[in-house]
Inverse folding.
């Protein structure tokens, strides 16, 4: 991904004189680097996800307890991983932004939030579709379900706060603080709902008690997880480009790009 | 620092006593919402006894949240908050003082009212004791964490609904352990772990929340 050739779009621009990776901390350099990277990410994401889902839906054997229904796993588990890790990444960039005061970190934080929200929602949705045939109910107040629901609410709160503040500097810093407060709370929330349930009712069906996976299932799961990761990164970076253009609209290069696109 | 703290708390208490209508409205909100549930779910004593502690805890959460805007809101409007940020005294002390005042105005009356409202839900005397103890430990956490939300949403459009969206997910552990203590007592179990965990939440939020709220105030006023 080290730039060897220039995009036609960046003609007349040499990437700034920073050394190594640090130069991509500049929104300008990042914008064009992502532009080159994006088609590859998108293509490999679609390819790997297609491969993973293909193995999962067509090749992997049916589960001897759940039958065909278990195949939702190949969508459900990757979305859960993305939803959780994206929140931690968001908080990480929030911390970097607050400490180093770098603009791109805040922009990345802002770009991560909608992807995290969407995957948390998809995780709950596919989980409900899975729960109805296997547990006989769309929803139970199980520890995992509840903590993903609260994770979704944390995302919603973050997005709502950012969109309620017009001044982008205040929006960045307030959102970053909220993301950090939320990430401190995530383990607390997780353990609180977990203990609450074990104290109140017998343990519901948990993923830990699932039968060990057949090799084909494991391969399909890993491939679809990797594919969804690539797609999520592609979506975040594509959104980051939009955020960069919007925030840098006062600069000459952004105006030229916008004119070219229009 | 302690002097700043007590001064900030005393000032907020004095202001609240001069505008007692607001304080009473939040209390009556608590009483009225708690009354809605028996009317809505039906008057069977066994049902009320089982939902009572959870209902009272959720209602206390809402009542405490309702007044979060007041912690910093009035001071923002009349410019006092700006002076507090400019002053040489530590802002954290002011924040702790204001949070203390918020708890004394909203949290403590809720604890005192609880035995009365618990009668409507036919709770036993032991349950009421555990409920009051859990509220006594838990409501300061609500004020501490809520102060962050109040500071973040300072002066924003639609602040009331926004503060709910920000703060309610963070309130979940308090609700779970608080209502869990009473549930464990009613089930004949040991309720002290719940109260200890509530105490741990109180200690952790007391150590972190005032600093986060002070940082949020600096962000809001830039």
């Amino acid at each position: 991904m080290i730039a060897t050739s220039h995009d036609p779009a960046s003609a007349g621009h040499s990437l700034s004189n920073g050394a190594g990776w640090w130069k991509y901390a500049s929104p300008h350099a990042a914008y064009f680097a992502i532009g080159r990277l994006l088609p590859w990410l998108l293509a490999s994401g679609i390819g790997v996800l297609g491969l993973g889902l293909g193995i999962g839906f067509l090749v992997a054997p049916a589960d001897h307890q759940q039958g065909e229904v278990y195949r939702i796993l190949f969508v459900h588990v990757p979305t859960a991983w993305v939803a959780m890790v994206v929140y931690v990444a968001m908080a990480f960039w929030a911390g970097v932004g607050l400490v180093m005061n770098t603009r791109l970190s805040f922009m990345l934080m802002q770009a991560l939030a909608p992807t995290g929200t969407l995957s948390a929602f998809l995780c709950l949705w596919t989980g409900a579709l899975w729960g109805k045939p296997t547990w006989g109910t769309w929803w139970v107040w199980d520890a995992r379900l509840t903590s993903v629901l609260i994770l979704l609410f944390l995302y919603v709160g973050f997005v709502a706060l950012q969109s309620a503040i017009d001044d982008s500097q205040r929006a960045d810093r307030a959102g970053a603080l909220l993301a950090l407060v939320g990430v401190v709370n995530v383990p607390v929330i997780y353990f609180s709902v977990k203990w609450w349930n074990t104290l109140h009712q017998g343990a519901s069906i948990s993923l830990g008690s699932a039968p060990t996976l057949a090799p084909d299932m494991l391969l399909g799961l890993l491939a679809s997880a990797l594919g969804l990761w690539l797609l999520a990164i592609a979506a975040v970076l594509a959104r980051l480009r939009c955020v960069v253009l919007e925030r840098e609209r006062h600069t000459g290069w952004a105006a030229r790009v916008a004119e070219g696109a229009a | 620092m302690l002097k700043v703290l007590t001064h900030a708390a005393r000032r907020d208490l004095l202001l609240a006593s001069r505008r007692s209508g607001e304080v009473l409205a939040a209390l009556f909100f608590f009483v009225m919402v708690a009354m809605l549930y028996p009317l809505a779910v039906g008057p069977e004593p066994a049902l009320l006894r089982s939902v009572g502690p959870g209902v009272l805890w959720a209602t206390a959460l809402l009542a405490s949240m309702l007044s979060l805007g007041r912690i910093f809101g009035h001071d923002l409007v009349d410019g006092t908050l700006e002076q507090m940020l400019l002053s040489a005294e530590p802002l954290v002390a002011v924040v702790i003082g204001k949070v203390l005042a918020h708890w004394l105005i909203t949290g403590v009356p809720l604890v005192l009212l609880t035995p009365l409202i618990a009668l409507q839900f036919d709770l036993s005397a032991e349950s009421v004791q555990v409920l009051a103890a859990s509220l006594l430990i838990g409501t300061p956490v609500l004020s501490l964490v809520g102060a962050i939300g109040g500071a973040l949403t300072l002066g924003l459009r639609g602040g009331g609904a926004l503060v709910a969206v920000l703060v309610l997910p963070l309130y979940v552990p308090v609700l779970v352990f608080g209502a869990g203590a009473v549930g464990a007592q009613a089930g004949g179990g040991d309720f002290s772990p719940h109260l200890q965990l509530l105490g741990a939440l109180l200690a952790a939020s007391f150590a972190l929340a005032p600093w986060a709220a002070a940082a949020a105030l600096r962000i809001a006023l830039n």
User: Anything to note?
Assistant: Residues 27-59 of chain A form the longest helix (33 residues). Residues 1-16, 199-206 of chain A have pLDDT under 50 and may be disordered. Chain A has one domain: 29-203+213-261.
